[in-house]
Amino acid sequence: MARKSWLGKLAEQKTLLLMSVPFVLWLLVFRYIPVWGWSIAFQQFRPGTSPFDQEWVGFRNFKFLFQDENFYQVMRNTLAMSLINLVLGFVTAIVLAILLNELRSVVFKRTVQTISYLPHFISWVVASSIIVTALSTESSGIVNLVLMKLGIIQEPILWLAEGKYFWGILGISEVWKNLGWNTIIYLTAITTIDPAQYEAAEIDGANRLQRILYVTLPGLKSVIVILLILNLGNILESGFEPQYLLGNGLTAEYSDNLDLFVLKYGIAMGNFSLATAAGVFKTVISIILLFGANHIAKRLGQPRLF
Amino acid sequence: MKALARRRSASDRIFDFCNIVFMLFLAAVTLYPFLNMLAVSLNDAMDASKGGIFLMPRIFTWYNYEYTLREAAIFHSMLISFLRTTIGTVVAVFCSAMVAYTVSRQEYVLRKWVALAFILTMYFNGGLIPTYLLYKELHLLNNFWVYIIPGIISAFNVIIIRSFIEGIPEGIIESAKIDGAGDFTTFMRIVLPLCTPVLATVSLFVAVWQWNSWFDVFLYNSSNINLSTLQYELMKILQSSGGSMTQKTVGDVFSNTGGQAMNQVTPASIRATMTIIASLPIIMVYPFLQKYFVKGMTLGGVKE
Amino acid sequence: MKISQLSYVLLSVSLVLLLAGCSGANSGGKSSAPSASADPAAGEKKTPVTFTYFNAAVAGKDANTNETVLGKLLEDQTGVNFKMEYLVGDLNTKLGVMIAGGDLPDVVVPDSGIDKMLDAKAFIPLNDLLDQYAPNLKKLYGPYWDQMASEDGNIYVIPFAASNGFVPDMYQPGAFYIQQGVLKEFGYPKIQTLDEYFDLIKKYKEKYPQIDGGDTIGFETLTDDWRFFTLTNPAPNLNGLPNEGEVFVDMETKKAAVTGDKDFMKRWLQKLNEANSEGLLDKESLVAKYDQYIAKLSSGRVLGFFDYGWQIVPAVQNLVQAGNDDRNFIGFPLVFEKGTKDQYLDPPTFVTNRGIGITTRAKDPARIIQYFDNMVKEENQKLLFWGEQGKTYEVDDKGRFYRTEEQIAQIQNPEFQQSYGFSYFSYYWPMGAGLFEDGNAYFPDRQPEVVEKSYTEGDKRILEAYGLKVFTDVYSPPDERKWYPVWSANKQQGSKEQLFEQKKMDLQRKWFPKLILAAPDKFDAMWGDYVADFNKLDVKAYEDWANSVVQDRLAGKKR
């Protein structure tokens, strides 16, 4: 009975079906079919050799990854940098979106918005060269100059030589580069907030801060939660470009992450199998986190993904 | 809002002042890299390698631009970049919005499954070689459509649009349905117009991604110059300028220059030039789209 | 590391000294026969055809060879045009999908991807084709023929640069560079040892703590990314050994051993540590990028550094342009102990695991081999390297080639190099190197008549002060090492030796800067910790591999 009614419903919804099923088919072809490639993770893959002649090695590639003596350190760095980026990225973007929303001049607001997203278009190679220059101990090192002028430090610090500063430098660099870009989505969400709510708050005697807390932030809640869930799934993706470009031997204990490891021992060595194995590992973790976060959101009565 | 402006308290003014100061600081910090790139790109390359160029070129020259733009292929590649960006954006935004609409309909029985099928794809990919072989089977190699078809929908955009559609008061959609509109008509006539801000946002995301892509050109279309994009052509120029310093061929510098190397360009100067050339057109998109962010939905009148 | 090795191949090839000068001995009679056999088909052979050529070794502008002056001339001779594509992104990625998809061009220069190509059987064996169509190739590569065959006896790739005769290079290979002003200040002393070198730097820095308003930098290192080898390579050099990568080979026993934990490595790092404690070392250079390094060298504030001529080209150019010769550099092959013979120059070598191959997809391999054979004819080699007489070079009454100032200026223009074809043909094709039979150099920048024109007044002065003709005269001639260099041997993907190199790299990148910056009294203990970590790596597997390379090469086998 239930089944029939389900089918019956489906028949009624043929427009919705027509609007979505072709894309699901597209999805199967372009996203799901290539997943056969995961078999490479269990081979010592040699391109140009037929799938039947490949050497199957079981979990050897995974073992190589997990049994590396630096694996623990690599995972720690990956998680630490991801979390820092996640928290900093979220907080700064939301704060900037709110502050931009509080600007009264539309022209000024748009100008700042546009300028603030410019660094997103600069490659990490260029960005890192600017960062390294700014952190230099030479006369071009503006960070040291300012800190010394302010009397915070006595002599220039070689920022990039100390592992303990690395995560901080990376976090700030990421914010600098992507703040404006990350803000766009919250600015979009703010436009959905009904102006009547602000007026109502005003009438109730709410001050600026209260309006932000009780109108703007709740209006952003669903976007924030959804992005949070999505990004938690990406926690193992801390990127490799900035780490690769800003890191060096002295900071390697803090800068080496999973993606860099894969780059060095997988891609640069032409070892597709190891790169695939790492990808499979990341996917498994991502999907666990995704379902976990979604479940928690559901339990908390928050908007959820699916 | 105007009413608010008149009754500004002292703390409000202090807040505004601090806010403006902060925004100016932010603008300065984020504008700097661009001005710096501009200065480097307009400076003699060898001189720039001495360092110390910040906001103004020291030895002014157009040479970096001449060097980069002298290739006829650049202009054709701009056309391809423009085409893939516009076609790719329109198609992707429309398709993503359509899927988003279906998964936003609470009554749709496949809703959860369709959504999940899309969301999962954010966290895996089959890898380089299987994808390459698939495209080969589908005759997408050396084909313009390899820029468009594999990217028609991104799960992220679907989710974003969906959350926006879910914010539309159900009453609006219900009343359309009562007036006899089917799902497709409702989507086209009611939902799409109401979604303008998020569609503008997603357009920006897709357009930037399309414009900046070069890896698909590298993998799938590299041997057909007619399908090359601006980013890829610039990448070629950059790498061959870098090549002359690092992967030095005996020939390039050593055998035919009579010793004294002749580099009027350096990787750093080309990179700066290329940053300016490649990003200016796409940066222009944002200010243009901004008006859609502000207008937004005027939902004030519609109450559930 | 990969890129550095590539550059090395190129540079060492370019510096090849040739052992046997008799390669042309039996060529006279032979050359007529094959050309006769080719005659009947000559008409048909000229039908225009376009092949595809993929170069994974270097970035460049994609083009058709017949769009260049040189390529057009070759097309007129053979009817063959090549559509050339150059690698833009990652080599392994591109070759991987090309091979997996079977989408191979006709001709590939796979660079370090050679393993992948051979593994996938993507290259055809060339033996029969060479026998049938390639008398000129056989003549040119004659002395090296035995080294070109793979284990199965087939020749799959034709290496570049079959060398004939030695010509010193304009660029110095590895050297400890020092500012000419420092030498002038102290009356152009002869410096042989590292200690003397640092003493001079120290004295000069004490006397002139500032240069042009900035702090004088005693010694600069280069550690950015893959350029890290610039920090580690001097160690064996200082001990009178050439740079073979991770190992050195005993001349008597022919045993290879890793360099990473040896005393000479320690001694070198300890010297840097000492320099640091005396304030002579630029600490920032341990974290700086290459761009900053060049900027510092260009500033004229740096007194000394170890590097290779090709890595400092922009800085030298800047200094030349600034016009103060005292701020420019000259390099010396320093050693630890007086009397040690320096071995900075690469011994004669023929790199067999880089080259050009014809793929299984090639439509007409015979035409391709004929094209290759045609291009290595002596007159065509002169064409490809020197261009056309009267246009890009001149010949004096003694038959010596030279270039006028205008010709040199014209050729320095990258656009001209491209449109003329020099940038496409000067490497990555079958070719010779060294000296032509008439004594002219293959590469114009090895021709004294050309090189001299490019020396500045300052160059001439310093050369005179040290009684040198060219800068490379500072080096001792290299001893013969038939296995040299070990690093150029292929490493199987995923092999222990490949893994060792990456792990070792990670380890040294982590430890060496720390050792250099350590308090001098902590140095020994720290070195002990490093060596302990180093020995956790699979050193034995690596040495075994290196020894097998040495043995195979001594036995004349391709490795």
Structure description:
- Chain A is mainly α.
- Helices cover 68% and strands 1% of the residues of chain A.
- In chain A, helix 3 packs across helix 14, helix 8 crosses helix 10 and helix 9 crosses helix 10.
- Chain B has 304 residues and is mainly α.
- Chain B has one domain: MetI-like (MetI-like fold, Orthogonal Bundle), CATH 1.10.3720.10.
- Chain B has helices spanning 2-6, 10-41, 45-48, 63-69, 72-104, 111-120, 128-137, 155-166, 170-178, 183-194, 196-212, 215-221, 230-243, 250-255, 267-283, 285-295.
- In chain B, helix 5 packs antiparallel against helix 11 and helix 13 runs antiparallel to helix 15 (267-283).
- Residues 1-5, 243-262 and 295-304 of chain B have low confidence and may be disordered.
- Chain C has two domains: 2-168 and 350-445, Periplasmic binding protein-like II (D-Maltodextrin-Binding Protein, domain 2); 175-344 and 458-485, Periplasmic binding protein-like II (D-Maltodextrin-Binding Protein, domain 2, 3-Layer(aba) Sandwich), CATH 3.40.190.10.
- The two termini of chain C are 19 Å apart.
- In chain C, helix 13 runs parallel beside helix 23 (496-517) and helix 14 runs parallel beside helix 15.
- Chain C is globular.
- Chain C has 559 residues and is an alpha/beta fold.
- Chains in contact: A-B, A-C, B-C.
Oligomerization: heterotrimer
- The CA-CA distance between the termini of chain B, in Å, is 24 Å
Q: Say which CATH homologous superfamily of the largest domain in chain C is assigned.
A: Periplasmic binding protein-like II
Q: State the share of residues found in helices of chain C, binned by percent.
A: 40-55%
Structural class of chain C: alpha/beta
